[in-house]
Amino acid sequence: MNKETFVTKEQLDKITQEYPTPFHLYDEKGIRKNVEALKEAFAWNPGYKEYFAVKATPNPFLIDILKEYGCGCDCSSYTELMLSDAVGIRGEDIMFSSNDTPEEDFQMADRLGAIINLDDITHIAYLEKAIGHIPETISCRYNPGGLFKISNDIMDNPGDAKYGMTTEQLSEAYKILKEKGAKEFGLHAFLASNTVTNEYYPMLAKVLFKQAVKLQQETGVHIKFINLSGGIGIPYHPDQEPNDIRMIGEGVRRVYEEVLVPAGMGDMAIYTELGRFMMGPYGCLVTKAIHEKHTHKEYIGVDACAVNLMRPAMYGAYHHITVMGKENQPHDHKYDITGSLCENNDKFAIDRMLPKIDIGDYLVIHDTGAHGFSMGYSYNGKLKSAELLLKEDGSVKLIRRAEKPKDYFATFDCFEIGKKLL
Ligand SMILES: Cc1ncc(COP(=O)(O)O)c(C=O)c1O
């Protein structure tokens, strides 16, 4: 089955004259259309807000587009907070959802006025010591344990996840926070990742809404928002049915009417912290075939590697590949598509049926817009690629330059060798 690319071969031929492969390319039109649909889907909730998960695609130019639609930032670290600040997203437009959090990060979040989402009950004392007070608005992350199932399908295993507080800890945490002066509360959970079903958010909402009613009754606190976090997935495989965000929004609305409204909690704001759903399909990794190797298998070596996109090596994740200009040719060659790392898992595809690939062909690796570039590392001295934005008018803007050797050596400034190399 085929998957359409958002860029044509003609456009790529032009782009690569100025910017050599590999690079990540993002689709402004797609990003805008998608965030509009998300906002419409939750328009029934007056307090609704999407806090874009910065970790998915930490690029200020892309976050700036989302900012136009009123999105905030979900940050998990000091530098992500700096990035949000640089884009002008501050105060309660930042959700600080971190775990195993260093003191400096809490201090930075507090300086920016972010909403702090505590991962553990012990973080109450740690936070108080770090910033000298407990903020008036505060959130807690919930982990009910066990398996998260939809019908008989196991979606994920929260009981095995390091995140969040148990049911008992959550109630205790709210009481302690209230005693220490907190006035407005949030409740957060992330129970399944990359869900390609319209049922995940409504099911999660039911768990959280019921828990919120219980907590409000038990502790007497005012719960201001429920944060459904991330987890809405995308169809990486061409034969997967994409999520319908309108149905998801409507599903959450129905549960809201069923659980919260009768409990007198109809003033609840719904927040989301989506990453993959916001950017995943609107980014691709463009790479060029530079070698072919015929040994025990047929290999095509490309000029990108797992440093540019780690998901296949890390999780065996599927990313669809289009050989540009050969979309309609028979997929009658079986290839492993490899990068150049000295790691045998550095393969973008294994035993993939593709058209015959020739040296110089451009390969578009789909759905790299989230958790793609951002997961990269620097093994084998590999440098990170550029990021480009394909604008609505068809022009291209450089939104992050490619790393140069001097970037790789920059942290050796304490050694003489560093000076020589720079
Ligand atoms: C706390 C938190 N929020 C949101 C997200 C975004 O998740 P997704 O990209 O699946 O929407 C993540 C992803 O790891 C996360 O850890």
From TrEMBL:
Any coiled-coil regions, as ranges: none
Keywords per UniProt: Decarboxylase, Lyase, Pyridoxal phosphate
Protein name as catalogued: Diaminopimelate decarboxylase
Chain ranges of the Orn/DAP/Arg decarboxylase 2 N-terminal domain: 31-279
Residue ranges of the TM segments: none
Species of provenance: Faecalicatena acetigenes
Superkingdom assignment: Bacteria
Needed cofactors: pyridoxal 5'-phosphate
InterPro entries xrefs: Ala_racemase/Decarboxylase_C, DAP_deCOOHase_LysA, De-COase2_N, Orn/DAP/Arg_de-COase, PLP-binding_barrel
